[in-house]
Predict the 3D structure of the following.
Amino acid sequence: MNNLKEEYCELPSGKQPALRVAAMPKDTNFKGDIFGGWILGQIDIAGSIDAMRIAQSRVATVAVKEVVFKKPVYVGDLVSCYAECVAIGTTSITMDITVYAERVNNGRCVKVTEAKMVYVAVDEQGHPRPVPKK
Ligand SMILES: CC(C)(COP(=O)(O)OP(=O)(O)OC[C@H]1O[C@@H](n2cnc3c(N)ncnc32)[C@H](O)[C@@H]1OP(=O)(O)O)[C@@H](O)C(=O)NCCC(=O)NCCS
């Protein structure tokens, strides 16, 4: 762990995370912190879960936008990804993902990453298909 000042927060109340997972030693970069690519992978999975529910089909990730790694994630932290649909187009679904880490050393919560992901509803052939209207 480095000497960055921590800004503690609460997990969003009344919401369930799309994904919750412990950061493991195999996911570290050369500095020993958790690799950004691993966090991005969790974000992609978390966003796709609700996107698939909305699409009622498979989805493909078409764009990764505005990823901000605000704070590091450390080995043993409990990582929670919260997903919110912010736009639905003809075939696309845009999700905001917010990632929190519950620190392994004290259990306190820190907002670590924010991202906007765009998914496209696809058919069995992988071609875009319209998102069903509610
Ligand atoms: C996703 C994919 C099926 C879309 O096919 P496509 O023929 O490019 O689709 P379109 O150009 O018609 O775009 C589909 C939708 O995505 C949106 N889109 C495309 N590129 C975008 C971008 N860079 N940013 C935001 N939205 C984008 C379009 O606006 C459109 O949305 P709408 O229908 O709601 O208006 C195709 O690009 C693909 O298979 N990409 C690879 C997916 C993949 O492997 N992802 C994992 C990466 S490791």
Q: What stands out?
A: Residues 60-63, 89-92, 118, 120, 122, 126, 128 surround coenzyme A (CB under 6 Å). The chain is about 15% helix and 40% strand. The chain has one domain: 16-122. Residues 15 and 119 are 22 Å apart (CA to CA).
